[in-house]
Amino acid sequence: MATLQDFKNRYEKLNDDFMIFTSKKQPATLEIIRKYERDKAIKINKNVEEFLLTFGSLILEVKEEIWKRPEEFDVLPSWKFGYGFFVYGLSADENFPDWLSYEEKLLEAENYEATSLGQMFFKRSGNLYRAYFNDETISIEFDKYGEDREIFDGNFYDFLISEVNNLEKDYLEYINEKHKKSPPK
């Protein structure tokens, strides 16, 4: 099973085309985590707690000048909308954006009727898929109607590392496709 250090080692291997943003200057505190658990009747496991205490939240994206952001109404293969991902969380920062918070994601999950899956903590950009934790179980939801779900086989850090790997794979495909030459006419 992967650790926090394994996750750090993995994302540090990414090249300069990637940007990472965290709330690590003011991550969650144990007091904030315990209050959230009590208020929402959610059990946060030790790996997630360690992540919250270290990072608070995290955004990992390919830089926009490298991976052009799709425009509204663009028709593209779905993976081309996946230029990054969000790991939602908790923070001691009073100005922590609501859209990045567990509380907001819990409400969003209720709107999708996914509350039985637990706390939404992850979303791939472009709404490609979301992930939830419920104590030690990680569920991935590929559509908001609950018709395409799977249980992830691994811990929290295994999941995050696999998502860094997925993003890097898609980035390489995007770069390779972008630099292909059109056949002469």
UniProtKB/TrEMBL annotation:
Organism this protein belongs to: Flavobacterium qiangtangense
InterPro entries: Knr4/Smi1-like_sf
UniProt name for this protein: Knr4/Smi1-like domain-containing protein
